[in-house]
Structures are given as C-alpha cells and as structure tokens.
Write the structure tokens for this entry.
Amino acid sequence: MVGSRLEEILDQLRSGGGRITTARRAVVSALLEAHGHVNAEDLAATVQALHPDVHQSTIYRILDDLERLGVVDHAHLGHGPAVYHLTDQEHHHLVCERCGAVVEVPDQTLAPLSRRLKDEYGFSLRPRHFAMAGLCRSCRA
C-alpha cells in the first residue's frame, strides 16, 4: 500500500512539472510512514537521518510543492508549529485547550455550517487550516 501510494504521489509531482529527486522521494516516504500529523522539523529529522545531505529548506520547499498539488495540508493545532498530513481523508481538527488532545472530525461534520455560512453570508468556509479550540470530553468531566 505504501509503495503504490508513494508512486501515486510521485506521479502527481511529475505531472506538476517536478523532477523526482532523492529528497522528494524521501520526504514523501517519511510522510507516508508518519501515519498522521507531523511537523516539518520532525519530518526533516526523519529524512536527514537517512539522507544527511537534504537540507531543511529543501524539505520546506517540497512540502510547499506537495501542498500546492493538494497532496498535503498543513494545520495549526495551537501554539506549536504547523503540522502536515496527507489529504487522503479530509478532516478538521478539534484541540483541547487544557490537555492538548487532538480530535479529527470528518469534513461532513462541518458541512451544514459551511452551507449555512455560504447561503446566509456568501462566505466560503475553509476551516482545515486552523484547529477549533475547546475542551475535550475528559477535561469537561
């Protein structure tokens, strides 16, 4: 599964006019192996452990390319660094202000709100970039 998904993403990079370099392959592989949210520094550490010649600035450029192509999204889950995740399953983030727990909710959860904002205010909501803050079930108890 990881191998076929890796090749699909690399094909998207090729289609977007990019060459497939060792660095690009390493970044995509690290994203696939992360199985969730990862910040750029952790991703860089993973890549550089296997490919010490890949600079952190190169990793940021690759992440920008992947985001432009719709392969990854980045989100701000609070006060820490932005995290990146593959867009295979679009979702939103809820973050507990007390314990820091992150809950992923599917796109359709906010669909009624998005429709209402568009109908009533002509506003097109794109909430995946930032997390919604509140208290999780455990901290509310």
In short: The two ends are 40 Å apart (CA to CA).
